[in-house]
Design brief:
heterodimer, A: about 375 residues, MetI-like fold, 2 domains, disordered N terminus, B: about 550 residues, alpha/beta, 20 helices, 20 strands
Chain lengths: ~375, ~550
């Protein structure tokens, strides 16, 4: 049963001149769909986080903190109180001095060191600075004989709210950059698929006949290529890089799009408004541009929102296999793969990227469903 | 019936029903408090134009409202409210005591099942019959609805039947469990007039044999007059007038009913002056669809138009009538070189047959077309102004946007549309307005010939009349020539001065309108006219 979408309107003259396009009506319907709107907000936030997050995040996604490998997520700063003393001891281990006492307080440490035979070299503060934990170390006081000294260093407070990975890189920053990469691959690969698929499908469907046959057989042939094999080939020839991923994924996904658009075009082709345009003598190119493509867009957009998650998953799959983006860049798939390896001792490494991915995919799918209902209410 | 002693004999009652739809623009009331009743063995018609809410009442009564619809009020079957009962309880009634047939026989049958499968479902679900018993009953039913070769037809799939036969199957399905009330929602609208007459005859006959009541929903007053005992006239969700059919037609009380009754197309076209110059001359037009046999193909050729001559003179209106599948639209398209065809076509002295898309472009300006479906012939993503201006972009590319807007406004005013509405989208217009837009799109190029392919078929009678008036005025003012293709004889008679009757791709009869309508020579034409103009007589003959 179809919904009564619009009561048959009889427009009175002078009732305002701006019309409400189908797009506007669809937007209105979408706005009433809470789940879809919430998803849209989440998506926009995620996109903003992906774009601007890495610029403002306190840690660079590629910065390694050897002292903080696989530390669990915490809202308190690292190093924790009980880690400072061992860290200081470790840092000064090669300074050939005895540590008399270490006091922690006031955002820093005060260390008294003694030496039995040699004078203490003031440059040993560098050992402290070399550690990620301390900064701005200085000699406060050196005793007259140079055999004991007091040093002071600030403790650098580092926040790892999502923990760090197996190499000691901040997981939160890595999730941000992986969001950027995943969304970029999703959007660009879908964009590539969209442009090629829509043009190809609309042309094949509109021209029809022999050309249609040839074009669609080409699609069939491309379909029959095993995808992973295709990607491995590309990687072997051109080496691993992100652009290649777009091409590989886009080159496969446009096939679906072309088929869908062709099917739509075939049915639109028989609609009277296309015949009307033909009877006006409108050129085929213009008919496709003005009448066919705009009328397929509803379906295309729906399909697109469902394709983005598919592409993101595909990229994750490739990255999981080790064919995806290259370190230190990362994507959600890579992070999840690494998390899976460290599932036992650092479950958070799996949890956070997986949660991000889940939310992203949920939001995209909800939005896709919402758009479907909004653009195509009769087809539920 | 104890609670309604004074209303004995009423088997179906609708009491102050309201149907509301929640749309994006807020609630829309489709039915605003309607009461009606049907007595035992009575035929009641509900008549109204599109959007009057006549179908929604029945949808609500049968629990078939769209998801966003709500119904309030009461619907009673034998005194029992069926509007607010559970689906399970409703199912005990619908399909059994109350059945429904719909407008579109193509889509109301499931294409995946044979006729037997579809018919046996209600019998076995409601009647609790065995497969064997059901089969015997189906055969009986198919014979009852006069389907030839019923035993063979049982194994057919819906697409193998004609539209009329499908509607007969639908009726058989509705009769399967001896219903007391048959609700028929525009059951003949999608059918040709002669088939329509047959189906109505069948319904009348069945009613007298089985004694059921019929609630007939239609927009066609001709059917109402011939068929119904009592009539409700609906307008904008309310009952405008109610009464015995004969009284309603002889002495309508409300203005709306009077307007409906007066909406029959009237007037005729004056014959052409003898010296009117020739415009188009077509010889031996032939159109063949499908392709001949090939390596992997069977021969799928079908001759849709078989050697027709057409002569058109300036200012003429050539009416082409025929039933669906007679090739009349195909002929119109072939004359405009929109589909591949054989035959010689001379347009103002130039041979235009076989010219490709490019070759035809200069001629397209003078040769325009208006299509049947005012919903389908306007691109839904373009504004009205863009649609009307499209031809200018092709044929007068030199115009700047200001001049174009001016021409669009002019064309819109010409067809009686406010130019201020040019930024609106097609879905915001009513059917009649849309057809005006389509006419404006053709008119803006100042053509000499317009092929009108069923331009009024999808419109209500009252709107139809306005469009006919418009076409007449435009023809007078612009010295236009029309080819008017229609299955509606009344409209053709009102508009054209020369008529061709087509059947199976060939012309059966042709002649000046007056002569042809007064003295039809072939049986086919006579049958067509009888079904179109004398439905009542036809039904009465049958009953006698």
């Amino acid at each position: 049963m179809t919904d009564l979408a619009n009561p048959a309107p009889e427009i009175a003259a002078g009732e305002g001149t701006a019309g409400r396009s189908l797009w506007a009506v669809a937007m209105m319907r979408l706005r009433r769909n809470r789940a879809a709107m919430a998803s849209l907000v989440v998506l926009v936030l995620m996109a903003l986080a992906g774009i601007f997050g890495p610029m403002v995040a306190p840690h660079d996604y590629s910065e390694v903190y050897p002292e903080f490998v696989k530390v669990p997520p915490s809202l308190a700063p690292y190093p924790q109180q009980d880690q400072i003393v061992p860290a200081a001891e470790e840092a000064l281990a090669r300074a050939r001095v005895e540590i008399a006492s270490i006091e922690v307080g006031g955002g820093g440490v005060t260390i008294m060191v003694t030496s039995e035979s040699r004078e203490i070299d003031p440059r040993i503060t560098r050992y402290l600075d070399r550690s990620d934990v301390f900064s701005g170390s200085e000699m406060v006081e050196v005793s007259g004989d140079g055999l004991s000294a007091t040093m002071r260093a600030d403790v650098r407070e580092l926040y790892f709210i999502a923990g760090t990975d197996a190499n000691g890189r901040d997981l939160f920053s890595r999730i941000l950059i992986s969001l950027r990469i995943s969304l970029m691959i999703g959007a660009l690969a879908t964009g590539v698929a969209l442009v090629i698929g829509v043009l190809y499908g609309a042309t094949a469907g509109f021209v029809g006949g022999r050309l249609d046959n040839v074009m669609m057989r080409v699609v069939d042939i491309l379909y029959s290529l095993p995808f992973v094999f295709f990607v491995i080939l590309l990687v072997v020839f051109f080496g691993r890089n992100v652009v290649l991923m777009f091409i590989a994924v886009g080159a496969v996904e446009w096939l679906d799009m072309a088929r869908i658009v062709r099917g739509q075009t075939l049915s639109l082709r028989r609609r009277e408004f296309v015949q009307a345009a033909e009877s006006l003598g409108v050129r085929s190119r213009d008919i496709v541009r003005r009448h066919i493509i705009p009328n397929t867009l509803g379906t295309v957009i729906i399909y697109m929102t469902l394709m983005i998650p598919k592409v993101i998953l595909l990229e994750s799959f490739l990255s999981f296999l080790g064919l995806g983006v290259q370190e230190p860049l990362t994507s959600l798939g890579v992070l999840i793969a690494e998390g899976a390896k460290n599932m036992r001792n650092a479950p958070f490494m799996l949890f956070w990227p997986a949660a991000t991915m889940t939310v992203l995919l949920f939001a995209l799918n909800f939005l896709g469903d919402g758009l479907r209902d909004a653009l195509d209410p009769k087809d539920r | 019936m104890a609670e309604h002693p004074d209303k004995a004999g009423r088997i179906f009652e609708v009491d102050d029903i309201r149907v509301t739809f929640d749309t994006a623009d807020g609630a829309v009331e489709a039915v605003r408090g309607v009461s009606m009743h049907v007595g035992r063995g009575e035929t009641v018609a509900v008549v109204g134009e599109s959007g009057s809410g006549k179908s929604q009442i029945m949808m609500a009564a049968m629990g078939l409202l769209a998801n966003n619809g709500r119904a309030a009020g009461a619907v009673r079957y034998r005194g029992r409210d069926i509007l607010n009962v559970s689906v399970a309880e409703l199912n005990r009634l619908r399909g059994r005591k109350i059945t429904m047939i719909f407008q579109e026989p193509m889509t109301s049958l499931d294409p995946l099942y044979t006729i037997e499968d579809q018919l046996s479902e209600p019998l076995r679900v409601h009647g609790g019959m065995s497969r064997q018993a059901a089969r015997a009953r189906i055969l009986e039913l198919l014979n009852l609805v006069q389907i030839p070769n019923a035993a063979e037809r049982m194994r057919s799939y819906p697409h193998e039947l004609s539209g009329g036969q499908r509607q007969r199957v639908m009726i058989a399905m509705a009769l399967a469990n001896d219903p007391e009330l048959l609700i028929a929602d525009e059951p003949t609208t999608a059918l040709d007039v002669t088939i329509q007459a047959e189906i109505l005859q069948l319904l009348a006959e069945l009613q007298s044999r089985i004694g059921m009541s019929i609630l007939f929903i239609t927009h066609d007053l001709g059917i109402v007059e011939a068929f119904a005992d009592r009539t409700y006239v609906m307008n904008k969700g309310r009952v405008e007038e109610e009464g015995p059919t004969a009284r309603l037609f002889s002495a309508p009380r409300t203005d709306y009913t009077k307007m409906l009754l007066a909406a029959e197309p009237e007037g005729t076209k004056a014959p052409l002056p003898a010296n009117a110059p020739a415009l188009m001359e077509a010889r031996e037009m032939r159109v063949t669809f499908g392709r001949g046999p090939g390596l992997f193909r069977r021969d799928t050729r079908l001759e849709a138009v078989r050697g027709i001559d057409v002569t058109l003179r300036q200012g003429q209106t050539l009416g082409i009538v025929g039933e669906s599948g007679s090739g009349k639209s195909t002929l119109g398209r072939a004359l405009l070189q929109m589909i591949p065809s054989e035959g010689q076509v001379v347009w103002l002295g130039d041979r235009i047959e076989g010219l490709g898309t490019e070759g035809m472009r200069p001629y397209r300006k003078g040769l325009q077309m208006v299509f049947q479906d005012p919903y389908g012939s306007l691109s839904p993503r373009l504004t009205c102004g863009e649609i009307v201006a499209e031809g200018l972009l092709v044929h007068e590319p030199g115009l700047d946007s200001k001049a174009r807007t001016e021409r669009v406004s002019e064309a819109m005013a010409d067809v009686g549309l406010d130019p201020a509405m040019r930024n609106r989208f097609p879905h915001e217009f009513s059917g009649g307005q849309r057809q005006r837009i389509a006419i404006a799109r053709a008119l803006i190029l100042r053509p000499k010939l317009i092929v009108l392919d069923e331009p009024t078929s999808a419109l209500d009678r009252s709107v139809q009349k306005q469009v006919i008036e418009l076409l007449r005025r435009l023809q007078r003012e612009n010295d236009l020539t029309y080819i008017f293709i229609s299955h509606d004889l009344a409209v053709v008679r009102a508009l054209s001065d020369y008529v061709m009757v087509m059947k199976d791709g060939a012309v059966v009869e042709e002649g000046p309108t007056g002569e042809l309508f007064d003295r039809p020579e072939t049986d086919y034409t006579r049958a067509l006219m009888r079904a179109a103009f004398d439905l009542r007589g036809l039904l009465a003959d049958k009953a006698a």
